Amino acid sequence: MATKKKSFALETALVLSRAIFLFILIEVSLRVFGVASEEDYVPARLIRIIENGEIQGEFTTNEGDLFFPVEGNEKAIQNNPSYWSGQGEGYYPHAGSMRRLEFSSEPTGQRYFLLGGSAALGQQPVNIKTKMNWPTIRLDNSVLALDEQVSISGHLESRLKKASLKAEVLNAGIIAQDSGGLRRIAKQCLEFKPTGLLLYLGNNEGIGMALGMEGETLPLVPEVRSLLRSSRLMRVVLDQVLLVKQHREQNKTTTLHGSTPEVLGKLIQTQWRAAGKPLFEEGSPTDSVYHAISRRFKENLRRIVLMAKENNTQTYILPIAPHLGYAPFFDANDPSLIEDSIFNYSKHMEKAQKSQRNKDWETARESLVAAIRIDRTHATSWYQLGTVLNNLGRYEESWTALNRAVVLDLSRKRSLPNFGSLAQEVCAELGCKTLDLHQRQRKDYLTTGLALYDERYGDHEHLTPKGCDWVAEAFSELILNE
Length: 482
Known about the structure:
By secondary structure, this protein is of the alpha/beta class. Among the domains are: 67-211 and 291-323 and 416-447 and 462-481, Rossmann fold (3-Layer(aba) Sandwich), CATH 3.40.50; 339-408, Tetratricopeptide repeat domain (Serine Threonine Protein Phosphatase 5, Tetratricopeptide repeat). It has helices spanning 2-32, 44-52, 81-84, 118-121, 152-162, 179-189, 205-212, 232-248, 261-275, 288-310, 339-357, 361-374, 379-391, 395-408, 419-430, 437-448, 451-456, 465-481; strands spanning 67-70, 73-79, 102-104, 110-116, 136-138, 144-146, 167-171, 196-201, 280-281, 284-285, 314-319, 433-434. The strands form 4 sheets. A 5-stranded parallel beta sheet has the order 7-4-8-11-12, with helices on both faces. Strands 1-2-3 form a 3-stranded antiparallel beta sheet. The protein has a two-stranded antiparallel ribbon with strand order 5-6. Helix 6 (179-189) packs parallel to helix 10, helix 12 (361-374) packs antiparallel against helix 13 (379-391) and helix 13 (379-391) runs antiparallel to helix 14. The longest helix is centred in the N-terminal third of the chain and has 31 residues, at 2-32. The N and C termini lie far apart (100 Å).
């Protein structure tokens, strides 16, 4: 009996050793020949953006002339009435909205056009946390906007007048325009011999990119929360299973539509899963969407500045400073984490949230630090850490954490902190003028913390009159220093 048991054990050991040897042989062979290696998923049209700064088939509607002579007075110019009613070129149902403009065909003094999206236009914020005691106007499509005198253009014209500079500042901001839209608008504004173009932009770059990805179907990428994820053989098996699943469930695959935060969020999350790790190194995203947005933003700035130089017009660029007080619109966990790690991360986050409800800020901070040690690229934990540090009065650490949350927000819905440095690169090359509003705002943040944003912003992008004056002050410095 003992001999039979011994023989069975030997046979079992032999079978297991052969199986292990075969597994190792297949695994080594797959690695040698580069089969099932972790790679980035990059849509072809993103490659084209990276190469030449263009989006394949940029989204525009009702494109046409922005300005017309006033009937019966060819020396006076007005903007296209379709833009008064919100039917102009843009992205959203209220896109294309702008203020009514009328000005002389020939400038009588210095003339500046303010270009940008709804933030430049002065759209009324939707989540105001301060007492609203300022005048507003209603555009023809019922969109509320700040009265001209308390908008960026109104404040700037007033500041220049106080500095004894005779100048008109024409607000050509149009709702939902990104840098590509501004390039087209700038071309038409330059026909009226402005002294300068004032660019206040950055919040809509993700919108333009999302619409450029219209119709892209995301591949099914397995999310393996176990140590087996490192096995090439496991990936081959999963790939085959997913191919069958994808064939059976064609209608259930994710196809990108519209411009909601989920569009770029899901695209980048798919890239993370395909790579088997977060695409984030040394404090900066490395995904192709981030690089494409940055490249396109810089390229459009260059083209605007070059057009302006050909018309002897200066360009002043203020990339929008992101609102750090808003929670991430879309984030994702590190795809390399196993289930036990995710479980422990969730426990720390639950404890942190309970502590925040009880206003036990130090315990919340400790729990969030523990969570971040497990998953260093989940935007929500960094955002919560930043708000907790703000409540502890540790503003410099809070600033660092909230900046990390912004760049880890996969929606790319807000202006990116690197836009300031991109504008500086363009101006160093081409001679335009710029200030980094985000870094300028940091100085004030280190004194007041998040309360600063309640004073200057009414929501994640639109400014209060005080915020408009803050931007106008920066523009006036650029103009007057020159």
